[in-house]
Every structure is written in structure tokens, then in C-alpha cells.
Structure of Pyridoxine/pyridoxamine 5'-phosphate oxidase:
Amino acid sequence: MEIDQWRRDYLRGGLRRKDLKSSPVEQFRQWLSEAVEAGLTDPSAMCLATADASGQPSQRIVLLKGFDERGFVFYTNLQSHKARDISANPKVSLLFPWHSLERQVIVYGRAEALSREEALAYFHTRPRDSQLAARASRQSEPLESRAVLEQQFQAEKEKYGEGEIPLPDFWGGYRVQPDAMEFWQGGANRLHDRFIYRREDGDQWAAERLSP
């Protein structure tokens, strides 16, 4: 495997200042729509980067479940590794890797917990088995075996039968409020196009081009 020789050129197109929306959220909305139209697998999948109190970074893929000018929303176990990191250090980063479109979007910001009401409203839109799985799993905790996990899931299933499944105390969501957002479009000869929006006063944004 000669990994050092794996390469390709990026020829799908460029990104020019005249094409940019005034708001990075609107620019993201356009690119996400184009990712969906292109038939990308899991276009809402994003890599969430956190760091604990010691500065040790950690990353994992989560799914975007909503966004607007206030920020980008995801849900998780509130006792998980990521949640513990956020409790110690709310500064996070999101990365949307749309490889087949030769695009990336990076969000830099702070994660804040959603209200109980927001988490409850989303929780009951999930498939029933996903609700049960959220109750059964103690995310990021050591697990003796797969069989134990399946037993915990079955116990929750029997406990609630056909009744309503309550929102666990240890489950909720976060909104990442962006301070900056970068849009990357691959270019020929590694002359990529990069623009970063930085928040100014209030809801005003300023965009500048970065060297590739």
C-alpha cells in the first residue's frame, strides 16, 4: 500500500466571493441542499470535536438534527464522553466532510444545552426502538458484553410495553452557536478556495478568503 502516492485532483468547480451568501448559515443551507440533491450518503453527518479539561481532544460522528441562525443542534446521552467534555470545555468544532462534492464546512463555536422541552419534543419523534435504546445504553461506560446491552434493551421494551416512553433524565441535546464558519471547495493543482465567516457585532458576519 503506497499511501503516499494516493492522490487526485479536485476539478468540480470553485468558490468565488460573488457566490457567497451574506450569512454563513444561509451558505450552509445552500450547500446542504446541494449535498442532498447529489444523493450523498448521510449528508447531515458531522464530526464533532471536543476537548476535556486537560486539553485532550476527541472526535466522533453525530447527526445534525436542526439548524438556524441560533446554531446547529444534535442530541446525545448527557453522561457520555462528549457531554463530559462539553461540561468541562464548551468550545467545540463541527466538520461536514462532503467528499464527493469536494467540499468541507467547519463550524467553530460553543455548545449550550437545549431545554428539557426541546429535548422532549425531539425524543418523541424518534422511532420507538431508538427511544428504548437511549434508555438502555449508558453511553461511553464500560460494557461487559453485547449480550448485556441486548438484555438491557429487552428489559426496557418489556417495562414500557405499548405505553409512552419517558424521556430519560440523562438524555438531551446541544446547540452549537457559531463564532466562525469556514467553507472549503477543492481546486485544481491544490489551489483550493477557502472562505471564513467571522461573527462581528450581533448577527453581522464578515467573510474573508484564506490561502489554501
Summary: The longest strand covers residues 171-185. Residues 8-123+171-210 form a domain with the Pnp Oxidase; Chain A fold (CATH 2.30.110.10). The chain has two domains: 8-123+171-210, 125-166. The mean pLDDT is 96.
